[in-house]
Amino acid sequence: MARIRTLDEMMCLFRCAKLDASLSSFVRPVQFSDQLVSDDYKLFEVDSELADELSTSDSPRIIELKDEPGKSGFGRVYACAADQTYSVVETETSNTLLLVPNDSAPIEKPLDTEEPKPAVVYAMKTSYLEFHPCIAPSLRLLKQKMLSSRYHSPFDDELDGDEDSTIRPPKFTRLELTAEFPCSINELAYAFVRLGIFEIEGFMRLVDSDYLVQVGGS
Predict the structure, then answer these.
(1) Cα radius of gyration rounded to whole Å, the chain
(2) Would the CA dihedral through 149, 86, 81, 44 be positive or negative?
(3) Alpha helices by DSSP H, the chain
(4) Whole-angstrom distance, CA of residue 163 vs CA of residue 165
(5) Which residue of 45, 55, 71, 172 lies most exposed, with the fewest beta carbons within 10 A?
(6) What's one GO BP annotation on this UniProt entry (predicted)?
(7) Residue 23 and residue 116: Cα distance in Å, rounded?
(8) What angle do CA 21, 23, 25 make, to 5 degrees?
(9) Terminal-residue alpha carbon distance, the chain
(10) CA 184 to chain CA mean position, Å
(11) Other beta carbons less than 10 A from residue 89's beta carbon
């Protein structure tokens, strides 16, 4: 059976909270759903500009959550947009947050003659996730990853290709690096430029600086 907090109970809570008396007309009975789906929701706190962009129905903006690989499993969590990376931090709320449908709570002052309808609670949350802009990816970690696939010249690359595949240096595609390094697509592309990483025959390679000078001067 659904749990209900009556209007009288909610008004008592309203007075205990010592809120502005002009808000009393917004107080509603609260009905808790038989099956709360709290685990199905995540709350994020974002700046107003990002919130407006994400809430637009035809917005192409996509934010992907990525884990940072660590020595003992996964490390920090990052939220990656097309042009910005955010470090995600979980924060406890001072009070339990009740999630209700848009049409379940009034946003305008109701008429005095209007019968208060219960606000139906479908989920309760005691924490939310904060987005903190950060600089990503780590150039040090990316360079360390790419050292094994350093590209010196086409001739040296042919010699590497003749080696046994079991001892051949590993190579990585752009997609593999995008999946491994928690950062935005644009930031990763900028990091490639900073470090001199180029796509050669389908793989991202850390091109030797001496070879770049030779190619640039030829």
Answers:
(1) 27
(2) positive
(3) 7-16, 48-55, 139-146, 154-161, 174-180, 185-195, 209-217
(4) 6
(5) 71
(6) maintenance of mitotic sister chromatid cohesion
(7) 14
(8) 105
(9) 80
(10) 10
(11) 13
pLDDT single digits (tens) 129-157: 998 888 888 899 899 999 988 888 877 66
pTM score of the predicted model:
0.63
Q: What is the pLDDT of residues 71-93, one digit of tens each?
A: 555 567 888 887 888 889 989 98
Helices 185-195 and 139-146: crossing angle in degrees, nearest 10, is 60
Tracing tokens 């094994």 back to the chain, one arrives at 148
Region of poorest pLDDT, from 19-23, 68-72, 213-217 = 68-72
What are the tokens at 123? 């989920």
- Whole-number Å distance between alpha carbons of 40 and 105: 21
CB-count burial class (<10 Å; 0-12, 13-18, 19+) for 137: buried
Helices (H), 66-173: 139-146, 154-161
Q: Residue 89 gets which letter from DSSP?
A: E
CA–CA dist 218, 216 (Å, integer): 6
